[in-house]
Every structure is written in structure tokens, then in C-alpha cells.
Amino acid sequence: METFELNLSIEELEKRTHKDYLITKKFLKADAPEYLSLEEGDKTALKHLVKAAAILEKINMQIDNPHNLAVKEFLEEEIKKGNKQAELTKILFDAQKGINAIDTMSNPIRLIKGLDEKPGKGVYPEDLSKEEFHSILLNMLNDNKIEEVRQILTQRSMVVRDNNELKGIDYIDYFKEDFSKMADELDKAAFVSTNTDFNEFLRLQAKALRTADPMLDAYADKKWATLQDTPLEFTITRENYEDEMTGSIVENEELSELLKKHNITPIPKDFLGGRVGIVNKQGTEALMAIKKYLPTLADNMPYKNEYEQTISTDTDAKQTMVDVDMVMASGDVGEYRGGITLAENLPNSDKLSLSIGGGRRNVYHRQIRFISDMSKLQERLDAVLDPEQHKYYLDEADHWFTIGHENAHSLGPKGSSEALGKYRNIIEENKADMGALAFVDLLTELGMYTQEQRLQIIVTTMADNFLKSKPTLSQAHRVRTVMQNKYFAQRGGYDITADGKIHINIDKIVPIAKEMLAEIIRIQIDGDFNKAEKYVNENFIWTENMELIAQKLQKVSKALNGTLETELADKLLAEN
Predict the structure, then answer these.
(1) What does DSSP assign to residue 472?
(2) Would you call 277 helix, strand, or coil by DSSP?
(3) pLDDT confidence of residue 317
(4) What 8-state DSSP symbol labels residue 159?
(5) Cα(481)–Cα(487) distance, rounded to whole angstroms?
(6) For position 16, what pLDDT does the model report?
(7) For residue 28, which of 131, 397, 418, 446 sits 20 to 30 Å off, Cα-Cα?
(8) Which run of H or of E encompasses 73?
């Protein structure tokens, strides 16, 4: 067994695992009424789905970092010996699902000495630099190894050294044994689950896990995106926010031109997550209220005549949405690294299912959005928001904004933005935020929101947009909030009062959001890396006012890390 040197001291570990510093999100308990009210077949199916998600976590740990599994084994052995440092390290390892992460203050967390984060994570050889990567690809292209390079640059391949070259292996083949076991669990779930549509999806997904064929995933995705009235939720999330190696290609002009000549689009690698839950019917009905307005929103998007988008303006929107009581979040979707996902709009625009007529599906995570300590929320408002605007703050309005954000992912250019390189995700997340804000007035006019709800969405969103610390450029979801705060401040969207509180100039917010949305869409249409870089650099500026608010937020919340408590999932995993 490999041995490792633990990086964090006992004192640091005791602090980070203390309840004041470790946020805990509680998923469904073993005796949750949502679980107990399920049909017996669905209860049995849920057990198999949880086991499938656990296998997927093992796979994604290797995609994330080649040492994760060995470190996990080492920590478990050390804990048996009574090693307190290992025991506390394992709490953080399980929470962030790996040895490397970032905390809520945007500081890197390295659990093991000498094992730093690599730009290629676990999908590229550890010793591969960006310069060597580009050089090898150029040599292979010049040697006419076009298909080999194409396989290296798909979103679903693990890349290994092959003498002086590289080789891409589809992850289904690379992790064949584990994916096969996972497929068996999905087939078992499909045999007992009570919903025919859901069972059809599970069987399609199981088939896709046994054979390395992107089209099989496309068929499964297409079916998954139609699911609306199912008791259970199971998702394999495939998103590519983590891979900085592939994204670096656009910075090499010679390589980019050669790839373009051979019609090869370098797509960052997918990282895999598993979501298991029980669909909440009441919450889902509330979500569906926005669906009838989506074609109207599409018709009001900037530069709408210059691109194709997922939502059609003249047919029924291919968009399903469900609110889910969470049982398990494994792998990429469950990693608590600076934050955790509230909801997802999938499949992403780089996925094949969208090109064969598939739609998209939004899934919202109920237990993650719940606020457990309202007194702490009030303390935060007292610290940072103008008292006269407290009456407009409503925690539920954050959920309404998230609904707008996720649906805005389906608006705008349908084609992916790989040409924007490392800025693509920042630009896309910024688009989703501004889409959510830009249409608040229109949706109020259409009757989706009341005037009071309009005020609540605007004030709550702007008040929640301030961070505890300046993020790193790799944190797309946080970089975009800094950009927005800079942009809105320059245009009078908010002021800082004499006593250091945020005062939101409510009627200016939507017009400013429309302006920023138009600029973002223009960048996505043009697909110009340099324009994207310039735009991010001009707006990603941490100002004195942001630091002022950050200092106040740090005093209110000591939290540095987060973890998930999954009692029901743990019980189901322990069953034979």
C-alpha cells in the first residue's frame, strides 16, 4: 500500500472540521416521509441507483486525481491504527471528494504534501506540461495522425502516454469493469421501478455504460430530457469546468489553425457526477410555471437572428424541470469545493443529444438550497444590506432567481463556445445570471411575478452577489459575480452607504443586466478568445467596496468548508 504525508496540522484540521467552520447540508433521513411513501418497487430501485452513484464516485475520483483512491485507502488504514490526523483529514477528503479543492475563502486545500493540483487533473498524464501537450499534438497532426488526435480531444477520453505521443481512450473502455457494474445496478433498478419512462431511460443509460459509443449516451440523454412525471430522479452529470489543459489549446494559434483545418474541435473533458433523489411534486409544479414563457424569452434575446438556440420561439419548449428531494450527490455534482451545486441545466451544448433533436432538463436540489439558520441570515443582512431594503429580501427569491438562471442556459447561441477557451464557462455562467435578471420586468408584465416578487428577486439577488473573498480565475461561478458587481457599480446599480451597507438602486438593475447580457451574447456569437479575455480582465476587478463587504461577511460566517450528510443513502448502501 502507498503511504503519504498528511499536509494539514491537527490544529488546522480541528478548526476546519468544527461545526462553525464546516457547513453541513442534510439530505433525506432514513425515515423521511418522502422515502416511506414510495411504492415498494421504487424503494428497491432507489437502493440500486444509490449503488450505481457510489460506483460513479469511484470512477470520478480517478478522473479528478490519479492518487485519490490510494490516499483514501491510506487514510482508512491509518484511522484503524488510531491516527487522529488521518481521521480528521478523511472528513475533509469525503466532503470535497478528493485530495485537492478550494475553500469558501478561495484558498487551495491540499490534504497531501507534494500532490498539487494539475491543469489536466486526472485525465492527462501528471507530468504533461501545456507546452509539451501542444508540441505533441502538432507533431501528431503533421504526421497525419488526425483520428488519433481527434480521440485525444473528445470530452470523454482519458489521455495516456504512448511512446513519444499521446493516446485517448474512451472512459467507458478505460473504466470498463466499474461502468459494467454500474450498468448492472441500473438494469436492476429498471426491473423494479414503477415508472415506464424512467425505466426506459435507465436501460438506455445502462447500454451506454457498456459500450463506448457517444451516440448511445445521446439516446439516453434525449430520453432523460423528456422525463417529467417520475417518482425517482437519477442523473449522470457530465460537465467540463475542471479541465484547464484542453482549454489552453486556443491560446496556441498554430495548433488551433491546424485543428480547424482538420475539423477537430477541442472539447474540455467531462467530469462525472451521480444525482439520486425523489421528485417533489409540489415543488415541481411551481417550477413549471415559467415554461410557457420560455419561447417569449427566446424571442427577446439579444441578436436572436444571428444564431440558433435550444428554445424555439414557435414550438413547445423542449425543457422539462423537476424539484428533487436529495438522497445522494456523488462525484462531480457532490463535491463541496468552495460551494456546491443548487441546480443544473443539462445536457450542455457540447453534447450530441442536442444535435439529434433532444431537449434539456433542469433539476433543482431542495436540501442544498434550504437555509438551516435564519438568525445567521438576519445577522448577515444586518451587516451588509441597507436596513430600509431588508423588507425586500426573501430567501425563496434566491430560488426564483436560480430558476431564471438555469432556464437562461437554454437561451442564446445553441452552439458551444470552445473557442473562448478558459473563459467559456465564465462567460456562459455570466450569461445565465444576466438572463435571469434581464427578464424580471418582462416576466412581471406577463404575470409570472407580482410587483412585490420583482422587488424581492432584484434585492435578494444583488445582496447575495457579494463574496467573502476574491476568487481565483478557475472559479467560473464566482468570477462572474465579481464581474457583475464591478459592472453594476460602474453604472449606478448600487451604492455603498456611509456606514458601509449595500443600497440597491432597484430600477437600474434590469436595464444594466440587459446591457451586460447583450455584450456577453456578442462575445459568444463571435467566438473570439481575445475578446473574451479582454472582457473578463476588464470586469474581473476586486474593488475596495467588495473587500469592505467581504470583511463584514467573514465576521458573520466562519465557514471554510462544507459536507453532505446522507443518512438514507448510507443506509441503502449498507444493505445487501
Answers:
(1) P
(2) strand
(3) 66
(4) E
(5) 10
(6) 97
(7) 397
(8) helix 68-80
SS3 of 242, please? coil
pLDDT tops 90 at residue 414 = no
- Count of positions (residues) in the chain: 576
Q: Which among 202, 344, 181, 353 has a CA at the least distance from the CA of 273?
A: 344
Q: First and final CA of the chain: distance in angstroms?
A: 28
Query: DSSP 3-state helix, strand, coil percentages of the chain (rounded to 5)?
Result: 55, 15, 30
Look at residue 323 and give its three-state secondary structure.
strand
- Whether 474 has a pLDDT exceeding 90, the answer reads no
In one-letter notation, the amino acid at residue 566 is T
Other CB atoms within a 10 A radius of the CB of residue 142 amount to 9
Q: In terms of DSSP bridges, do strands 502-504 and 494-496 run parallel, antiparallel, or are they unpaired?
A: antiparallel
Q: Cα(15)–Cα(166) distance, rounded to whole angstroms?
A: 43
* Residues 322-335: tens digit of each pLDDT: 999 999 999 999 99
Yes or no: say if 182 and 55 are a contact pair by the CB < 8 Å rule: yes
Q: Residue 316 — pLDDT band, cuts 50, 70, 90?
A: low
In degrees, rounded to 5, the angle at the alpha carbon of residue 403 between the alpha carbons of residues 401 and 407 is: 120
Predicted pLDDT at 562: 96
- Nearest one of 381, 403, 402, 404 to 392, comparing CA atoms: 381
What is the average pLDDT value for the chain, to the nearest integer? 95
pLDDT for 142-162, tens place per residue?
Answer: 999 999 999 999 999 999 999
Q: d(Cα 210, Cα 346) in Å, to the nearest integer?
A: 22
Q: Which is nearest to 107 in space by CA: 8, 39, 187?
A: 8
